[in-house]
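Filed under: proteins

Residues; backbone shape codes:
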Amino acid sequence: MTFRPTESMYKSLSLLCVLCASVVNCFALDREAFSFTNYDLNFQVEPEQHRLGVRGKITLRNDSQTPQKIAVLQISSSLDWRSVKAGDKPLQFLTQPYTSDIDHTGSLSEAIVTLPQIIAPKGTIELEIAYEGVILVDATRLTRIGTPDDAAKSVDWDQIDAGFTAVRGAGHVAWYPIATEVANLSEGNSLFEVLARWKARGAGSRMQLQIAMTGNYVELPQILFSGVSCPEIALESTSAPNQHIAADCTSQLLRGHVPTFVIADYHISERPAIEVSYLRGHDVAAANFADAAEKVAPLITEWFGAQREKAKTADVADAKAAPFESGALLLMPLANTDPKLAGLAAAHQLTHSAFLSFRPWIEEGLAHFAQALYLEQQNGRQAALVYMGLHRSAFSGIGAPTTVPRSDDEVNRSLVNTTSEELYRSKAMCVWWMLRDMLGEPALKKALAAYRPEQDKEASYMPRLISAQTQRDLEWFFDDWVYRDRGLPDFKVDSAFSRKTMTNTFMVTISVDNLGTAGAEVPITVKFAGGDVTKRLEIRAKNKGVIRVQVPAAPQEIVVNDGSVPESDVTNNSFKIQSDDKYGFHHGDTEKAAGDPDTHGILHFAQNDR
């Protein structure tokens, strides 16, 4: 019997071949070949249905080194692709789920699009797209790695809802098309690395939204988009039971910030420096926050100049929601904010509204540095050092080497390259504080005033501005702390010798070892009955430094580092000075040991008090 395939079998075989070819192509995809340079999207939001419908255009640029025929478009797995066109002609595309924690659902809806022509490197193409779906509170990416449900939802609180709508972008919800490789929260820094690459590729892109909403509103809701109030709000129809509201919102993603839109029945508390949008019943909390911002504004202006844009704070309905910032926009539950901490949050936010940089270690590091300055202004230097100490624990163990780190690790973990928030926020804050201590406030302020983000083309730009304000050689400092991650210093008082002078004061000669792999200028404090004296000493990595400190009374203790310099070990920083009788020193021996025969006194020496 001869087998003859039927027509339907041919069609099935053809379809199978197409699918197989598509699967093969998926394995060879360069998902990050294209950058998205422009979004022009029409949004239809239906809060009561939790729905989002999108139609519009996107522009892609081939930033790879090879011509591309396939483009990848990704949106949240709770959204579905409807069409992809080029020049009004439908394009073939295959959709598939793509597991990635860059979206709160833990998965993306991926469209693999066959382009109408090959796109050469640096070439562009405009696509017309359509997709729709729902956005609900979803913390799947966190709960599946063991995060308790309540804690997970306090982080992933994005939703479209009749009572309150707030949706953050890539890294939270892919409500606009993106294209990234897989991001996995269970694999170290994977999510932050993928997100950092995406932000870098999208920095400078333009996003314009035309938002239309349907709902039954007593008052017109306020629409915020990436920190910009969308002013062109119009009530298109008042026909019962629903109203149709339209708004135009435009933003340029200059700093790679996360595009975010918020829709709520807000009331507004406005001050010269800040606009606070608050929910009904939260007026007292909003006023407290606005007042705190006004009080801290002069300090921020003194350090970082006049505001480039007005800072905006928007209330969040969930009292347990973790705060979130995107540029000068801060989202946080105002009703749950400690009034004593409002100034701290405002200092950070106002710094973003005044100082612009594309580099996270500058942008975020300075915002955290401003918080430490605020605490110092309010409660003294020790309060600022305690605050920085809390942040040090977040980065002191990151990739901490037991020996000299490998060169590739040094570069990858450096402040100019890192994707770790603990490093470009917390460690960078400490670096700015150390620079202030080394240079003095006037010099550092001049360097910051000279900074121009559009001129920041290379990693050495800001260090050069800083170095120009001093005669000191700072290249070693930037090499250890900014260009590379050398680890941390480890200071230990090796010895201390004290002699009484002819004027009845005491001259203390102190030798300090830096056992660590990074250098720093560290404060050395000599304590005596009734007070202390502090001097500063520069000690390079794996080196020793010597300093003399004159005090008015017999020294009792030496403390190296007041907490302003991050260290790998702070248990060996105290040195007790004890009576010379314990060690059997004599007057003649002290002069010889001190090596200074023109003075008189007693030598005090002790082992390091560990």
